[in-house]
Amino acid sequence: MPDVASRGPGGLNVLTATEAAAKLRDGSATSVELVEHCLARIAAREPDVQAWAFVDRDIAFDQARARDREQPRSPLHGVPVGIKDIFDTCDMPTAYGSQIYKDHRPANDTAVVSLLRLAGAVIMGKCVTTEFASPVPIGTRNPHDLKRSPGVSSSGSAAAVADFMVPLAMGSQTGGSTILPAAFCGVVGYKASLTGIDRGGIRHLRPTIDTIGLFARSIEDIALLRSALVGAEKATFDLDASRVRIGVCRTPYWGEAQPETVQALERAARALSAAGAEVTDVELSDVFAGIEDSFRVIVRLEGARAMEWEARHHLATMNHWLKRELDPAGRPDEAQYERAQAHALECRRALAKLFERCDAIITPSACGEAVADLESVSNSAFNRVWTLMRGPCLTIPAFNGPNRMPVGLQVVGPAGNDDLTIALADWIAARLDRST
Amino acid sequence: MPDVASRGPGGLNVLTATEAAAKLRDGSATSVELVEHCLARIAAREPDVQAWAFVDRDIAFDQARARDREQPRSPLHGVPVGIKDIFDTCDMPTAYGSQIYKDHRPANDTAVVSLLRLAGAVIMGKCVTTEFASPVPIGTRNPHDLKRSPGVSSSGSAAAVADFMVPLAMGSQTGGSTILPAAFCGVVGYKASLTGIDRGGIRHLRPTIDTIGLFARSIEDIALLRSALVGAEKATFDLDASRVRIGVCRTPYWGEAQPETVQALERAARALSAAGAEVTDVELSDVFAGIEDSFRVIVRLEGARAMEWEARHHLATMNHWLKRELDPAGRPDEAQYERAQAHALECRRALAKLFERCDAIITPSACGEAVADLESVSNSAFNRVWTLMRGPCLTIPAFNGPNRMPVGLQVVGPAGNDDLTIALADWIAARLDRST
């Protein structure tokens, strides 16, 4: 991955979660020391990066001290994790990026937060989310270049992991909210299958779209975090190059791809072919025509239902995108919603057929490197359709753009095949030529 | 399965979901006809059984007509499903069995309900739940004998499926709320792994305990319903008798088992051994001592958090069990909660070791056949520990008790191994001698 200007003291905070966990296990570091180094990095960089909605030293250290006194609860024991502020936490404020909830203290944890606590993770704090995870930036900056966007809406989660403030973070994705910021910030992002990681207790849930996302600095760390969340052992796979089949999908949005993205995908295809994989071009068939409109209908109607109370009582506090989104004028009706869902289903079927011919698809993670724009609504053209298709997606920080900003490669798998897709992404990452 | 006194006209409502779906597919029946037969059965039997909190003919027929006009969305297309009234539905009232919410109309569906709609299922209505899924009965009666309990808390879901009112129903389990009513009503019940079926959008969630449960009249139907909910193809397994390893676990509660339960487990063990499986006795090790107390601490503290608002404003409306449960006097503190979770983790580790020696455990589903008592708090002794262990559990309606009431056999698998455990339950069910 690209170097961030300064990593700070080169302390424990630069380790991956897997590396840090090994040190905790063999006694060469404690959770308190790890948290201390992460907090020092946050203190040094937060004024510039603005990745955190809430961090409290005492709450973090209390957890770390308690973990250090215990037998390990899981391989993730003692490792700090940042939590997108869209997820409830019973011991920290949860504002969903909204003025309405600025002093909100939920009584309960979202299920993923509970599960992380039970695995012995240290809940480090709340990472900045845009307002109700909408695509309007909210102040966080890209650690690689503070004038550039970190991507939205899990902006703080991606920036905090990229800037070595924390090895792991939780996010979510409705359009491109995990893959896009991970790609912009040069970390590994993983959006689960729709129901691949439990969504229990999420407020304002759009039940057929909102999906859990994870951030880390290695794919191994993604597998580690996922295993803690699903309560199963880390899966292992024997991948034989001669039997790996990769589809290269340029998508109907290829015209929006910047030169660095075009080059990244072409180079990846060549490298995987050279490594012995069967690499073929695949296309989203005609049935995908208009899928963007169907996506919009579904997001808009489910969003209106999910934020009904907030829209009725607090619309004036909301950003311009949400105001338009929640305006009853132009809201799709049930028949349009049904048609949109039927269209999405047709597309999922077409995609399932396509996955009979390949094990995973490689496709752009974003149009190009992070934009030098901290205010505009983000472009998730290369993400929305995959979210709607419900399968696992990872972005690998594979290449660099013209401004030395990271450029990701996206790996997409069939819905429900998360463990195999993560293993394939790892196999792919090891075979990319990143020399430029 | 035992015969219910009268199945009604012997119409489409007596078919399993798999059988009904085949008829819809080959055009020999329509979803409207299927719904009609189910509604006729409900009309005939509901005054006695009291399985439904809400059914509306128009809402059900509207969905069925729409499904009949469409291409099938999934193998479940057009099949009616009952929904425990603990899950939100955007088009039907949702009262959680509580006076507080008697006119509550949620704006949104719980995620599982959305996913069922997208799979083309007909949401038939809301099945009776006890108040906030507490273990206090609320009026539903066992279709096999109206003087007997249907089990709690997913009472309506179990009774409706058993009584041929609907082929499938959704429930949940915190103690024994799926396995117990399924066993009492003589249907197949399946409690998923904790995070094995998405819990998005569930109100009053106890994040480390509340688990999704399914009800059907065949194990094949359970696999069908599960596949619609997780968005993956139905898994298939080649099970070779000579390699199936079954552990027989009598548990520390064996003393509470009635003669019919003792006999059922012994007969099942003999039959599986005769079928060629490796059958061994297994015991929950000493580390499980006191696990009941740990379970109580976790349920009580998470329940208090989840129902904080209701307890503050509406305690007077609640049943005696909830009043005691939500009383701040005697509430465990955080340190007790941490110790209880640490204990549960130790037990999960011990159980994982045990699962190195067997593929699945067979154990009682309940103390005995359904009790002739429609008022007392239920005994989930054979269920709570498995809920806390987070693995998949199924109950198979395998045997009969002294009063010709059903007696179930419970099959328990390792957390995360739901598909294999369902396949093993199917393998086991086919090999049981049910001659008495």
Helix content of chain A: 25-40%
Read across the widest sheet of chain A, the strand sequence of neighbours is 1-3-2-4-6-5-10-11-9-7-8
Could you list the spans of chain A in which at least 5 consecutive residues all have pLDDT below 50? 1-6
In N-to-C order, the SSE pattern of chain A is HHEHEHEHEHEEHEHEHHHHEHEEH
The count of strands of chain A amounts to 11
Name the largest protein-protein interface in this structure: A-B, 44 and 44 residues
Brief summary of the model shown:
Two copies of one chain form a homodimer. Chain A contains 14 helices and eleven strands. With 436 residues, chain A is of the alpha/beta class.
What do you see in this structure?
Two copies of one chain form a homodimer. The first copy, chain A, has 436 residues and is α/β, with parallel strands linked by helices. Chain A has a domain at 12-230: Amidase signature (AS) enzymes (Alpha-Beta Complex). Helices cover 37% and strands 14% of the residues of chain A. The first copy, chain A, is built from 14 helices and eleven strands. The first copy, chain A, has helices at 17-26, 31-49, 57-69, 111-118, 155-162, 179-185, 219-230, 259-274, 291-306, 308-314, 320-325, 334-354, 384-389, 418-429; strands at residues 52-54, 80-84, 122-127, 168-173, 188-191, 211-216, 245-249, 278-282, 360-364, 393-400, 406-412. In chain A, strands 1-3-2-4-6-5-10-11-9-7-8 form an eleven-stranded mixed β-sheet, sandwiched between helices. In chain A, α8 (259-274) links the parallel β7 and β8 (278-282). In chain A, α5 packs parallel to α6 (179-185) and α7 (219-230) runs antiparallel to α14. The longest helix of chain A has 21 residues, at 334-354. The radius of gyration of chain A is 20 Å and the shape is globular. Chain A starts with 16 loop residues before the first helix and ends in a 7-residue tail after the last helix. Residues 1-6 of chain A have low confidence and may be disordered. Chain A binds chain B through residues 66, 70, 73, 90, 107-111, 113-115, 118, 193-195, 197-202, 205, 207-208, 210, 229-233, 302, 305-306, 308-309, 338, 341-342, 345, 390, 415-417, and chain B through 66, 70, 73, 90, 107-111, 113-115, 118, 193-195, 197-202, 205, 207-208, 210, 229-233, 302, 305-306, 308-309, 338, 341-342, 345, 390, 415-417.
